[in-house]
Structure formats: structure tokens, C-alpha cells
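User: Predict the full complex structure for these chains.
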Amino acid sequence: MGGRDTDIVLLDEKGIRCDGRKINETRKVSIKAGVLKNANGSAYIEFGENKILVGVYGPRDVHPKHLSDSDTGILRCRYHMSPFSVGERKNPAPSRREVEISKVIKEALEPAVMLKQFPRTAVDVYMEILQADGGTRCAALTGASVALADAGIPMRDLVAGCAAGKAADTVILDVNNEEDQAGQADLPMGYMPNLEKITLLQLDGVLTPEEYKKCIEIGIDGCKQVYEIQKKALQEKYFSKGDNN
Amino acid sequence: MSNEKKRHVIPGEVIVSGPYRAEQNTVLQGDKVLATSIGLSDVHDGSVRVIPLTGGYYPKDDDLVIGKIISHSAMSWEVDINSCYSGMLPATDVFGRDFSSHSDDLSSKLRKGDLIATRIVNSDKTRDPLLTISGRELGKIDYGELVEISPSKVARLIGKRGSMIQMIESATRAQITIGQNGLVVIACEDSDGLLRAINAVELVEEKAHVADLTDRISEMLELKSD
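Assistant: Here is the predicted structure of the two-chain assembly.
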């Protein structure tokens, strides 16, 4: 059911996936906060082979003016893949897919960001995918929330992103590119760990109700693991020099 | 209620749970108080706040800020106050009540690029914040060195009841005007004192979250003066 024909063994007899991970293991995630001098806040995230740079500007004046809202600030997100981020050159013009991902990431961040405090302003989040390997929307979301915190935008919680899915008839955590292409389902999630709320949920593929529940369960677990890394990245930037407690 | 030690927090982190008042940079979620900013938590007499370590300046009534004139219309100046909102300084504030847009020329008093020490009169966020330069210590700044620090670190530069800034001022004999928006003007007769004062301010900016900051600064100022 589902998936494309492929020669890759997605899951061997020992329960090891094509990149050597176990079924409930995320890829290696590393985040660095405050990497760009000219942005108000920034982050660089490596999520397995995904490499993403995020810059946050604002709150600042809204241009064009008609977009501004006198009751609240607005959040604008731009998810963009560099031409060199994938095997075949990607046209740098925003594609239908990028417009969609920008929108879902914006909506995933909105519950966390407290923009009511800054009417008539805009917060701009630019996510540049330098290298893509499946699961970029979760990685970009994760990086964006670190960059927003770095910019000092008030937030109720950080948003951590991680995908769950199904490949070789098994529910797996953190779907990579091969598993996304040849697997049966991909379920990206955004999650606020302290508020225990899901802010992003998409599903591409087919899952039974039981599998779906299992995916949500391990997805949340994955998000919590990612959250710890986000936390560490921020602590490293702000509290590591000459620590006092 | 006990006053617990200051802790490093990041957005979403639970500071305390129970009957507390959520103040600056915190939010109440059920019975938990969460931080909304990166900073140091401060629990005091049943109220919780976070002293931020990052973030821009948001205009507040009665704040002393340092602004730069961007432009002027027939009735007012537009002032960059290092915030997402630009300040508005009405011409009547400078020329007095009998200001006439026909006979008085705004650029004769303040030109584009001039620095002013100004106070925020009204900042209701539905309009741009209203400024005044009538008052003691306010008005055009004629000389001095402009240093920019993060607005979240201004409180640290001033110190408890002005202790930090007084220490720097007395050690270097410089006059330091601190704007709440993170702009600092340092004026000093001798160039050595000026340099030392600038270095001290920059060190505060760099090490704002360190506990023994006052000692470090005093050490630095004493070392240099020997």
C-alpha cells in the first residue's frame, strides 16, 4: 500500500533503518543561536542532513502599510529553498510548495508568539534551506522558534518540530528523504512542550486509526527531544559566558 | 512567600506554580507562571517577573530616551528612538504655544541627524509615542560619544539605585546620559577618561548576566587608573 518502488531496504530484519537509526530515533540535531549579526535574532540548525539558516527581523514597521493591523502585530514567514539545496537545481522563484510551507509554519508559530503587545508592527521570519534531506518544514519550524526567542519576541513557549511516519509497514520517527519518497506516510508535527499543544499537523499518505495514534505519540516524543536541543542552544548563547548559577 | 534565587529561563519555562502574580515578561497558564523571554527570573513577594537579556526597546511613559531626528513636517519632528515605533516631537513643545507654522522654521531649532535627550509623554501604541524636550537634562545633545547597547541591559548599566553608573562616572569623571532605549551618550573632558568610560559601558553590555559584574567593573576602572 502506497510508496514508490525502490531498491532501498527501508527497514531490515533487525529493525534498523536505511540510515542506521532505530525506528524511534531522531536524526542528529544541532542548533546554534545568534549566528547572524544583522538580524535581530537568528539560528542555524542541522537536522540530520538538513541545513537551515533562519533570520528574524522585528518588530518593525510594516511595508506595505495596508498589511498593518492596528490591534496586533503580524507575523510573516518566508520558507525558501536555495537552488543548491537539492540534487537537481531548484528554481529560486517561490514554488507552490514553498508558499504552502511558509503558510503552515506561520500558523504553527502564531499560537506561541505574543504579537498583541506590538500593534502596527510586523515580525519577519526568513528561513533559508541550504541543504534539504526530508523533513525541512519541521527543521525550519524548530529553527524559527529559536531565532524568534533569540530576537526577544515574547513567546508563550518554543515550538519544536519533528515528523513521524510509516515505512515498510512500520511506524517510524523522523522520516528522512528516502523514507519520505519510498515510505507509506509522513506526518510532520509542531508541538509546544510546556503548553502540551500541537500547532502543526499534516499528513501525507495513509494510516489506520491505530497507526495514526501511535504516530502522534512518538511524534510528540520526538518533539520533546528536539525541544531539549533548542533549550540547550539558547542557554549556550545567553548563559554560558561567566556563568553565575 | 519565599523569595527564591534568580534563575536562567527561556520562553515557555515554568518559573513557579501556585498563587503568584505574573508580571513583566511572564504569562499565567493555569496555575503556572511561564517565562515569555530569555532572561533571569525574579520571584519577589508573590509576584514573578523575568529580567530580559534580549529584545528591543518598547516605549513606556516617562522614559528618558535618546533620539535622532529623522525628518520634520510643518507641525512636528519625527524622531528615531531605536524602537519599532518612531517618536513624534510636536513643534509647540519647542517653540511654545504661539508657534506658527508660517513664521517658524522647524529646522532652525533641530535639524535632521541631531541627537536629543527626550522624555516619552504618551505611548498608547495606537499612535506613535509623543515626546517632549522641555525639562531638566532634556534637549539637544551638542557633544559626546554615542554608544549603543542592548536596551535589555540598560537596567544593569544603571545598577541598583544608580550604583553602577555612579561608579563609572566618578572613576572616569565622565558625564553619562543613558537612554532607556539603549543609546548612551558619554561626554568627558579628557580623552583617557572618555575611553575608559566607553570600555566600561561596553563591558557591562557584554557581561550583563554575570553576578559579580560590579566588582569586575570596579576592578577594571581601578586597574586602568593606576
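Chain A has a mean pLDDT of 93.
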